[in-house]
Specification:
The chain has about 400 residues and is α/β, with parallel strands linked by helices. It has 18 helices and twelve strands. Strands 1, 2, 5, 6 and 7 form a five-stranded mixed sheet that branches. A five-stranded mixed sheet has the order 10-9-8-11-12, with helices on both faces. β9 and β10 (about 175-180) form a beta hairpin. α12 (about 290-305) packs antiparallel against α13 (about 315-330). The longest helix is centred in the middle third of the chain and has 20 residues, at about 230-250. The protein starts with a helix and ends with a helix.
Length: about 400
């Protein structure tokens, strides 16, 4: 025989008395009722223990022992001796008008912190997809009240809310997503940043973005005192793209056999020479022997990699000036276009040699968001998509908060 305290420890539900259990396939049906107690009348406040009648209600609970759980709860309805008001007994784990326990709703919200679709969660907890969505819609995240020391911005292809791209704002220093915006239009970004006063915007000391002009203009207008940084990945790939355009243009001049050889050697040609194995170096030398133009482009690509090893801004500035001169003197149209791009973004690029901040964390978040979108086959409702993203990364804010408490 199970005593009351044993029942509470087993089920985790206070004041629940188990009467019987039955299995129906993979579903465990628990017949139970609450411990009888006196209740206060919600109308006149009188204490009563007089029962008017009983009603049985089916309540879904979290899975147990590998089975779905349904509680067949025999609920009492009390009647007030003073005013005649009829009311149900208080049940701590069951909100009014609900057909599932509090902890089942909490468990659904907890499961949705993972990159999963609503459908997969619904199957796991034995609820409908619409119910899972309705539970999640109770979760809401407001915009951040303050701005961090380091602010990074980027876009990702969300295809939601009738917009192709959405913008993501992060703090790469602490590794926290600050907000998700419905689009990357400059007008919307301006309206968003206007919500913060000048004193708050002055807290931002570093602004990181890719090589999209509207982001740089936002930095110049709203964060005048901050240091603007171009993400390292985005300016390095300009060099790789220039080399790849040259390779593709040159390989078209040769037979199919040579074209396939150049194409299959793409990885070792773009990889840094110092990281190649001996066999790969021999293969690269053989390919470069075929074309003087490709050999010049390869030299320019490798010399730019050497710039990345600079430890300070001034050294990098001198080496980059020499590199731009060599690129423009090479008569290579691909590198000529690339050198113009580097000149236009030179300030943001050179600042990266003095400060360590990049958009690496933001790009990692974008990859996870793409997985979320793919698992769900896309989102039409932007607010739900935004809350889902912030919910998935909500553990980061808790981790930062714990670290701050430890430091304090």
């Amino acid at each position: 025989m199970l005593y009351n305290y044993s029942t509470t420890n087993l089920t985790g539900l206070q004041d629940l008395i188990l009467k019987n259990t039955d299995y129906f396939g993979n579903t465990l049906l628990i017949s139970a009722e609450m411990e009888r107690r006196s209740h206060k009348c919600p109308c006149c406040g009188e204490i009563t223990d007089k029962i008017h009648d009983y009603r049985t209600q089916m309540i879904k609970d979290i899975s147990s022992f590998g089975n779905f759980v349904i509680i067949s709860l025999r609920k009492r309805r009390y009647v007030c001796k003073n005013c005649g008001k009829r009311f149900y007994e208080n049940i701590s784990f069951l909100p009014k008008y609900h057909r599932m326990t509090n902890r089942l709703s909490a468990w659904v919200i907890n499961l949705l912190t993972d990159v999963r679709s609503f459908s997969s969660v619904a199957r796991e907890v034995n609820l409908s997809v619409s119910t899972v969505i309705r539970i999640f819609d109770l979760v809401g995240y407001s915009k951040p009240q303050s701005l961090p020391e380091v602010l990074a911005i980027d876009e990702f292809k969300g295809n939601t809310g009738k917009e192709k791209y959405q913008a993501i704002i992060t703090d790469p220093k602490t590794g926290v997503i600050l907000d998700i915006l419905p689009d990357r239009k400059q007008s919307h970004l301006i309206q968003y940043l206007k919500q913060y006063d000048k004193k708050e915007r002055a807290k931002v000391q570093f602004f990181v973005s890719d090589m999209w002009k509207p982001y740089r203009e936002l930095s110049e207008v709203f964060f005048k005192n901050s240091v603007y940084l171009v993400d390292k990945y985005h300016y390095v790939r300009q060099i790789i793209w220039a080399f790849e355009r040259t390779r593709k243009r040159i390989q078209k001049k040769y037979s199919k056999e040579y074209r396939l050889l150049f194409k299959n050697s793409k990885h070792i040609l773009t990889k840094r020479r110092s990281k190649l194995k001996e066999e790969q170096l021999m293969q690269v030398e053989a390919l470069l022997y075929v074309s003087d133009e490709l050999r010049t482009a390869y030299y320019l690509k490798e010399s730019f990699y050497e710039i990345l090893d600079c430890k300070d801004k001034e050294t990098a500035k001198q080496m980059m000036s020499d590199w731009i001169y060599d690129a423009q003197s090479s008569d290579n149209p691909d590198y000529d276009t690339c050198s113009i791009t580097l000149i236009n973004w030179q300030t943001g690029i050179l600042n990266t040699f003095d400060y360590p901040y990049t958009n690496g964390f933001t790009e990692g978040c974008n990859n996870r968001i793409k997985v979320l979108k793919r698992n769900a086959y896309g989102y039409r409702n932007f607010n739900r998509f935004r809350n889902r993203i912030l919910h998935i990364f909500s553990y980061q804010k808790q981790k930062v908060s714990d670290i701050q408490k430890e430091v304090a």
